[in-house]
């Protein structure tokens, strides 16, 4: 059986010195070989694994005929962000996991093909890559321009609705811009995707924190007929251990916002600084932890240790990213947990006291619960710690909006139609408990369907 | 883009701008702040909203030149545009009747305290305002503060206006005379801590408006965290006002120094690039 075509990538020793893309993308020849591997199943299992229901054999068929222009139309029918999905989706757990070829051999590299189709048509006119219906002039407001908001807004736009996206930051894209580093998702790629939506008529209003700058009621007063809340994750979680407020102890969000959104890797050309640690400790096992560790390498760290309380098997981070991280010299210190951070006389972190862990029985997450091994404490010297322990939902809008119901953790409650406790107000993405870009996009898509249904019936 | 409609130099290196931002003006309340970004390469810098004019659609910001961003801001003129301005951010001051409110401000803190005391006075409080500055020339908003206070007192390091000493010296005298029901303080951390120590001893409820390092200011990044009552709190979401007696002042002060060297480098670079270099060989 044929082997899948490996995604070409830059050498670790070269790429770890800059922020350029690690994966360079298929050549045309590679794309054709890979596309032709697809069996074109009559009942494609891959589609069932796609949260945004892309007609996967459909777009691959066109690619195998070297017709990316038609391939991208098939993709754009279901997704507004193919260049992004092709890069950051965990395909190995979704479409590619279901691929028939994967049962006995290697699945088709669906993500890599999606990326090819999007990249090669990036400069095409929007008219040639989208099918858009006539405008109906019904106004919908989207709050937050991250993956959920762009997907929901994009789908509504393509169905003729007039979509305005309100963003609290000074730039669009949400986590795609401030969270995911340049070497995984170049800002240029993000800008291309967003520019297409702008050309289709999506309006973006920046620097507008809904709840504070305007309320939901203000939006209804401005004749928006439905509102989609996709404000994303909010404040970082802490471990509640001693020394977390020492200098040079960052939470991953702050570290990544500085580097990605504010471009502090280019300080002082850009004004926002970031500390560049020499011996960096990152705590966590998710994609954000890996992104932080790899970013620290690129900022010049000599050693980067990734401390995770479970074993690598339980790590939520994607396999590809873990492999890339190891190639770039990041040391995985698993079954280990920080107990406290120790500071020097200036209040900067100088060491982490760690404890070794072992795995017990599965907990509520289904993963085996890590249990500390007593008297196994030891010291790791460091000059910078990055905590990537997860995020709580952003509390601002829900705390300022009367009657908007949340659960005990602060997630906005929605019904099966994605509607919140307020009529005409829908929500999706991290603010209702999503956790990846694609799950947010999936929710954005489902919400868009429900919003259209609501607007048709009301 | 946000247009500057009015620019005034109201003190030595202190400027007051009225900026056209109707949505912010409409919803801003006393105690809140904005974040500005001067241009595409700029930092996000928090500034207190010193006042609003809903009819004109403007907010008033007052700032002192301290680093690169405030230097750049000071170079803008009327009709010029500020790239980004987001707000109002943070929780507004809780306006209610306390009784006697002693408002203490150091330096440009006077700009923050002005809308707060205006509202507190409207709510029926008696306001004694104490302004501290290094010298007379650095005192701003004198007339406006006077109008918003029942009594206005000063402390300067050189005695050029009011008492020769610190705001705490004046505060001591005031609370001996009549124990206040609330002390509200804003200014440099050592000043706020000194006020807090004093009022803790006298058991007077005290609010401080904190100004830690902040990045997004919209409840996302965690940069502005500060320990209050042994818990991590976020200034942009839970603050900026906190119970002074529960703030970890030492931690706040250490974190504020985090980027000192970078800030200097940034300003030095900027100043060097602005200099005329024709005479250099």
Explain the overall architecture.
The complex is a heterodimer of chains A (458) and B (281). Chain A is α/β, with parallel strands linked by helices. Chain A contains 19 helices and 16 strands. Chain A has helices at 12-15, 28-35, 45-48, 56-64, 68-78, 82-88, 95-98, 101-104, 110-120, 126-129, 147-158, 175-178, 187-199, 216-221, 252-261, 287-298, 319-327, 396-400, 437-457, and strands at residues 139-143, 162-166, 203-205, 226-229, 233-236, 249-251, 279-283, 303-307, 331-333, 336-343, 349-362, 368-372, 378-381, 384-387, 391-393, 425-427. In chain A, strands 3-2-1-4-16 form a five-stranded parallel β-sheet. By secondary structure, chain B is an alpha/beta fold. Chain B has two domains: 2-89, Beta Barrel (Elongation Factor Tu (Ef-tu), domain 3); 100-256, Nucleotide-binding domain of ferredoxin-NADP reductase (FNR) module (Rossmann fold). Chain B has helices spanning 22-27, 68-75, 109-122, 142-148, 167-177, 189-202, 235-238, 249-256, 260-274, and strands at residues 2-11, 14-20, 33-37, 45-53, 58-64, 81-82, 84-89, 100-106, 126-133, 151-156, 163-164, 182-186, 206-209, 225-228, 231-234, 241-243. In chain B, the strands form three sheets. A seven-stranded antiparallel β-sheet of chain B has the order 6-1-2-5-4-3-7. In chain B, strands 11-10-9-8-12-13-16 form a seven-stranded mixed β-sheet, with helices on both faces. Chain B has a two-stranded antiparallel ribbon with strand order 14-15. The mean pLDDT of chain B is 92. At the A-B interface, strand 5 and helix 15 of A face helix 1, strand 7, strand 14, helix 8 and helix 9 of B.
């Amino acid at each position: 059986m044929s082997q899948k075509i490996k995604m070409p990538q830059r050498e670790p020793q070269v790429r770890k010195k800059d922020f350029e893309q690690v994966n360079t993308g298929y050549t045309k020849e590679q794309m054709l070989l890979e596309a032709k591997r697809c069996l074109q199943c009559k009942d494609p299992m891959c589609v069932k694994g796609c949260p945004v229901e892309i007609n996967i054999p459909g777009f691959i068929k066109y690619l195998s005929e070297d017709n990316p222009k038609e391939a991208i139309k098939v993709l754009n029918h279901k997704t507004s962000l193919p260049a992004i999905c092709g890069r950051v989706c965990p395909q190995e757990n979704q479409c590619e996991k279901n691929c028939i070829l994967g049962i006995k051999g290697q699945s088709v590299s669906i993500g890599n093909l999606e990326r090819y189709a999007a990249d090669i048509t990036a400069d095409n006119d929007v008219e040639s890559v989208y099918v858009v219906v006539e405008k109906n002039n019904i106004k919908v407001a989207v709050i937050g321009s991250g993956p959920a908001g762009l997907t929901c807004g994009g789908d509504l736009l393509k169905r003729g609705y007039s979509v305005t996206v309100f963003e609290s930051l000074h730039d669009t894209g949400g986590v795609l811009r401030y969270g995911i580093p340049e070497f995984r998702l170049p800002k240029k790629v993000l800008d291309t995707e967003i520019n297409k939506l702008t050309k289709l008529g999506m309006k973006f209003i920046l620097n507008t924190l809904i709840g504070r700058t305007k309320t939901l009621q203000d939006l209804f007063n401005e004749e928006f007929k439905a509102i989609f809340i996709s404000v994303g994750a909010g404040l970082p979680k802490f471990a509640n251990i001693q020394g977390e407020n020492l200098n040079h102890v960052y939470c991953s969000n702050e570290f990544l916002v500085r580097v990605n959104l504010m471009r502090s890797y280019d300080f002082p050309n850009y004004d926002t600084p970031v500390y560049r640690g020499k011996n960096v400790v990152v705590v966590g096992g998710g994609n954000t932890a890996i992104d932080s560790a790899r970013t620290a390498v690129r900022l010049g760290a000599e050693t980067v240790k990734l401390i995770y309380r479970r074993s690598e098997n339980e790590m939520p981070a994607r396999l590809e990213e873990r492999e890339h991280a190891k190639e770039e010299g990041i040391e995985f210190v698993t079954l280990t947990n920080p107990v406290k951070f120790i500071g020097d006389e200036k209040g900067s972190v100088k060491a982490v006291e760690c404890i070794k862990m072992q795995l017990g029985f599965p907990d509520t997450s289904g993963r085996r619960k890590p249990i500390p091994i007593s008297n196994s404490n030891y010291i790791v010297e460091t000059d910078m710690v990055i905590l990537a322990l997860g995020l709580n939902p952003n509390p601002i809008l829900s705390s300022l909006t009367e009657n908007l119901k949340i659960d005990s953790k602060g997630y906005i409650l929605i019904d099966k139609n994605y509607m919140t406790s307020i009529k005409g107000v829908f929500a999706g993405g991290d603010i209702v408990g999503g956790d990846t870009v694609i799950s947010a996009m999936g929710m954005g898509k489902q919400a868009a369907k429900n919003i259209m249904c609501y607007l048709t019936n009301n | 883009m946000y247009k500057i409609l009015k620019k005034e130099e109201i003190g030595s290196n202190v400027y007051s701008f009225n900026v056209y931002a109707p949505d912010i003006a409409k919803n801003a309340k006393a105690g809140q702040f904005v974040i500005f970004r001067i241009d595409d390469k700029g930092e996000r810098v928090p500034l207190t909203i010193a006042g609003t004019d809903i009819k004109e659609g403007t907010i008033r910001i007052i700032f002192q030149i301290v680093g690169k961003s405030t230097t750049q801001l000071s170079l803008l003129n009327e009709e010029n545009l500020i790239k980004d301005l987001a707000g109002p951010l943070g929780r507004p001051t809780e306006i209610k009747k306390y009784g006697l409110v002693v408002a203490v401000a150091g330096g440009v803190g006077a700009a923050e305290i002005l809308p707060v005391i205006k509202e507190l006075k409207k709510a029926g409080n008696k306001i004694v305002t104490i302004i501290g500055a290094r010298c007379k020339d650095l005192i701003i908003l004198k007339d406006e503060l006077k109008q918003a206070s029942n009594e206005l007192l000063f402390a300067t390091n050189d005695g050029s206006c009011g008492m020769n000493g610190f705001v705490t010296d004046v505060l001591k005298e005031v609370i001996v005379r009549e124990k206040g029901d609330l002390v509200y303080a804003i200014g440099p951390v050592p000043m706020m801590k000194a006020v807090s120590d004093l009022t803790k001893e006298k058991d007077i409820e005290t609010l401080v408006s904190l100004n830690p390092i902040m990045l997004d200011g919209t409840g996302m990044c965690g940069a502005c965290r500060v320990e209050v009552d042994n818990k991590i709190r976020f200034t942009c979401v839970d603050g900026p006002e906190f119970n002074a007696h529960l703030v970890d002042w030492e931690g706040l002060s250490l974190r504020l120094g985090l980027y000192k060297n970078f800030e200097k480098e940034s300003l030095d670079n900027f100043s060097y690039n602005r200099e005329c270099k024709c005479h250099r060989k």
